[in-house]
Amino acid sequence: MFRLIRARILGFLEGRNNFLLLKLPTGSGKTTNAMKVLADSGYLWIYMPPFHHIIDENLAQSPFQKYKYLHLKSRAKLCMIQSFRELAQRNINIRPICEHRCPYRNTDCEYYQIKRQLFNTPQNWAGVHHHINDFLKDYLFTRNDDNVPNFRHYKCIIIDENPIGVLFINKKCNGEQIAHLTNTIRTLNIQHPQRTRVIRLLNYMIICFLAGTQPNYDKLFKYISSTNLQGFYETYQEALISGIVDHIINESEIPLDIIEWLIKIQRYGDRNRIEQMIVFKPASGYTKAHYYFMCYERDALRNLPIKVIALDGTANIEIWESMLGTNASIFQRKIEYNNMYQLTSGEYH
Asked: Would residue 187 count as lying in a domain?
């Protein structure tokens, strides 16, 4: 089996197809063989499993191969300032304040040291599924000093397990939470040209909530599409974190990140889809009225400029092809076994 997997991967790397799906069960050697083939070939690669500990298990602790790579770790774990780190661990985006107020950003911060190494010299690196949304394409299309985009230096991305969970948002909130966000914007006295438009949009959603009626989706879409939410959001995030650090508001007063959800809907929504992306549910029995926000980051993995190997033992082929926007070359085998053992040391043959 190992020889078959390795032969298929080698053929894929040298062939014309850009997407290989290895649909093999746990313990069959998908990750071990894919990584070893790439390491032995000398190609540069990117490895992206769902969690950081899987990077450690499959690369740092591998008994079969010593891999040379950069681990793009979590900002929340590496931040040197405790108050910033605590905010990040509560899912608050601390990037704006790190970039403008952190005294270690250009010196001792390990997170920025790793990113500088990666952008200065293309090399093997590993990140998690969340990096697909906010880092992967930006990195691949960034040009270095030689004016060559980074993707030209890489042969393949290995995506371990299905990342669809990070491409979807499925959130809900009520009118009180939207009102709290609006009041926080006013309390922080955010000065931005889009402030009035953002408050108008949020107030309209509150009015519909209080009335217990579906919003006028023509009007809602007009408010969303005519507002520069991304530009305002960056100013809002910096003001929010500064407000916490400067004790203008308490950490217990942090509102839901509704603006980020609206940005995703603005990016991928149109008038025909807005009614499926923002759904108002009136009160029913013991359930309070609330809004549902639903969106799929459909472009995150589409049109990638390098080859992709997907490792997924229970793969739905149609979902993978939809995520990548291309047809898959598939390698699958049915393997029957009674017992499975995970090796933690040994020699690879």
From this structure: yes
Same domain, 226 and 247: yes
**Residue 16: both structure tokens together:** 């014309």
Beta pairing, strands 156-160 & 278-281: unpaired
Angle between helices 195-211 and 229-245 (to 10 degrees): 90
Residue type, 245: V
Q: Which among 84, 87, 114, 86 is positioned nearest to 99, based on CA atoms?
A: 84
Q: CB of 92 within 8 A of CB of 256?
A: no
d(CA 28, CA 60): 20
Check which CATH number belongs to the domain holding 55 and give it.
Answer: 3.40.50.300
61 within 8 A of 42, measured Cβ to Cβ? no
Alpha helices in 212-257 (DSSP H): 217-225, 229-245
The per-residue pLDDT for range 211-263, each reduced to its tens digit, is 888 999 999 999 999 999 999 998 998 888 888 878 888 877 889 889 989 99
Distance CA 159, CA 162 (A): 8
Q: Is the pLDDT of residue 348 over 50?
A: no
Backbone angles phi, psi at 51, to 5 degrees: -135, 155
pLDDT of residue 336: 53
How many Cβ atoms from other residues are within 10 Å of residue 197's Cβ? 17
